[in-house]
Each structure stands twice: as C-alpha cells, then as structure tokens.
Amino acid sequence: MAQKNYRVLLLGLVSISISTSAEVVDVATSGFFARNEVIINAPPEKVYSALLQVGSWWDPEHTYSGDAANMSIAATPGGCFCEVMKDGGSIQHMEVIYLQPGVTLRMAGGLGPLQQDGVAGSLTWGMAADGPATKVTQTYSVGGYRQGGFVEMAPLVDQVLNTQLQRLHRFIETGTP
Fold it and tell me: How far apart are CA 54 and CA 72, in angstroms?
C-alpha cells in the first residue's frame, strides 16, 4: 500500500513539474531576477481578466489587511495595485505601467518588505497562447539598495510570487484559489 501511495505522489510531482517552473535566475547584492511559469487551461483573454481580479485569488497571508478582497488593480497606465485597510488606511503595492489585454500586465514597485527599501522593481505577467491553453510567465526584476543585500531575500520573494501564480492558476481552472 505504501509503495502505491509513493507512486501516486511521484506521478503527481512529475505532472506538476511539467506544467510549472520557478527559479531565481540571477541574484546579487544589488538586486535579483526571478521567473515563474505555468500552463493554464484557459485562453489568454480569460487569464488576463482573472489576473485583474486580484482580490479573488491573491493569498490573504500576503496582505496588510489580512483579506485579499481588499485588493484591486486599476487596469490603466498609472493605475494602482492597491489595498484598503480596515482602519481607513490604504497601501499602493505597485503601479501599472504597461498593459496589453491578453498579452501583458506590467507593474512597478517593491512588494511587501521591499517597499521600505531603496529599490525599484518591475513585475511582469506575460501571457501566450499554447494551443487551447495559456503559458503564463511571471518575472520580477528588482534592483537598488537593501541592507544586507538580496541573496537571502530573493528566494523568499520568488516563493511568494510563485504561490500567487499557483493560486491564479487554480482560481482560473477551478474557481477557487
């Protein structure tokens, strides 16, 4: 019985590795570049539309308010990827700098703990048709000053971003992140 469960687990891990990849491509004391990819069984237009519904799929563990429903993305250049707080406060996580429906959403800023550092970041969500599915490539390039550098921080940020991509994937394919 244990051997059968092991085979099922192994097959599950193999199928996951075929449809998704994540890595910190480059890291230095002055910045890093991370890339995550996934194949989503939906056309690019549907993926793009769902991406803009950030409050429906973002992990509430990675919010300031504790509730992802408080997050939104204004789909226009200069638009805000923002979160409202229960006490009346708010936060701008990033600013929309480029969008092409069904193809690209790019935002600038430092996410989470990077916001308090002297950094510039560019988060890009690229979508490309892959038969009836969509290959989503998420990249985050960060540079600037962070006390202690980025060597330890880069894998943590990449892990959080990959989690968000996987939640988007599940939200689109199942309706729940």
Answer: 6
